[in-house]
């Protein structure tokens, strides 16, 4: 369906804190017309939400699973609550401290 948007929550496990992971993800999201947020957790993971066109969300999901920032080491990435949405719920992609 033309004009559809996706929203998905994620959690990335591995060496993903202290390696500029959130900053690189923010740049990737902005370059791929995605909005949402990302933040570190106390358990050493990174969580967040992506929203955007399906192809863009797929690109970001692949990046979260396989690539990450240059110094990160991704063990696994879990995606939850993937749904089609009618409009974006965020206006930009935020790094939450």
Order of helices and strands: EHEEHEE
Indicate the radius of gyration in whole angstroms: 12 Å
Give the CA-CA distance, first to last residue. 36 Å
**What's the domain count?**
1
- Largest sheet geometry: 5 strands, mixed
Q: Which whole number gives the mean pLDDT?
A: 96
Strand order of the largest sheet: 4-1-3-2-5
CATH architecture identity: 2-Layer Sandwich
> Would you tell me the structural class of the helices and strands?
alpha+beta
Low-confidence segments? none
Number of helices in the DSSP assignment: 2
Percentage beta strand: 35-45%
How many E-type strands?
A: 5
What is the CATH third-level topology name? Alpha-Beta Plaits
What best-fitting shape do the alpha-carbon axes yield?
globular
Percent helix, as a range, is 25-40%
CATH class reads Alpha Beta
Keywords: Hydrolase
Pfam families: Acylphosphatase (PF00708)
Catalytic activity: an acyl phosphate + H2O = a carboxylate + phosphate + H(+)
GO molecular function: acylphosphatase activity
